[in-house]
Amino acid sequence: MRTAAQINIANFFLIYALLLIVLCIMKKCKIQQSKLLLLGSIRMTIQLMLAGFVLMYIFEHDHPIFTFLYIVVMVGFAIHRVLSRNPQLNKRFKIIIALSLAC
To answer: CB burial class (10 A; 0-12, 13-18, 19+) of residue 2?
Structure first.
């Protein structure tokens, strides 16, 4: 694979149109989380762009260590996110959660 996948601008804006529909539904149902939706969509865009650049680099440089490091970082980040949201868990249960996510 030597070329990047191309997404046309219409499909890209379709994603944000769906977010606007969700925002309208939230307003109609009087759910006061529109700031959270906006921040989440901005974060999603940045994360997808960064992941795209990293994956393009990995595909251009065919070495297994890059793939392994990418997987280790992604799994480590997922474990960190789950455990940081639940600091009250005991150490043994945290280890079980980390092993479950890693598997």
So the answer is: exposed
